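Archive entry: two folds, one per protein. Generate the first.
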Amino acid sequence: MAFWRSVTAANFLFLIVLTLTSHSCRTGSKQTASAPSDSSATNVVAEFFSHADRQYETAGQKAEIIRALGDMLNKSAQQLRLQRYADYQGGKDAWSLTDLIERYFVPSQPVPDWTESSFYRDVSKPEAQDAIRRQLASIEKESPAH
């Protein structure tokens, strides 16, 4: 009984934690971290446009890129899936939006989950819209001859 009178509250809590910890180790209990939720996952569109260089040669190609960036800011994902763009030679309705992006933008680092479905999932989210606005502002400042 003399032992319990000398135990302070802090010591008592320490003993409880020590006992529970050692019990957990003996029984093989594990604590696992949960997988990140979709809301904390990387936005592939924002990641792509934040680390991509544009590559075009003509004023017509530049205009088509500007049109596509504007569409991404103003149209729904469903509308964007149906949208078509001119190819390198100006052939009308030749490319989908993702085709155009993959041909005129080169990422400086890999984007792990870059697929058509992940693109349309993320394109309307705020972080993607911010990255698209930055690309649009940058290309609009460039001289016509590039």
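Generate the second and append.
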Amino acid sequence: MPGNDRRVVHTPAMNDVWINVQMWTAFRGNFHPFLEIECDVPDAGPAADDVHAWRERAMATLTRVARADGWQSGRYHYTAERRDPDGRVLEVFVQGVLDMETSDSV
């Protein structure tokens, strides 16, 4: 929906998987909520315990969204997770940190 912090990305590489993104702020000295990305996973998606495959898929999605949205340089923490229809986390597939550098940053 326009104007909020949820974004739906339908990709051939990613059923009800979300990537929760938090952004580092030096002012606060910690991560704060930034964006939630809903992804589709094909029937032949990675096994739940295949951390490497989930990391690759999450990073590909994050990179694509970051470029499209023009994210600023900085550190972003992400978690790829399966959620129930009410938004509760059922399973975490992978989590990590994305250090983003752009040529537009000051």
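Annotation attached to the second fold: Residues 10-14 have pLDDT under 50 and may be disordered. The chain is about 20% helix and 40% strand.
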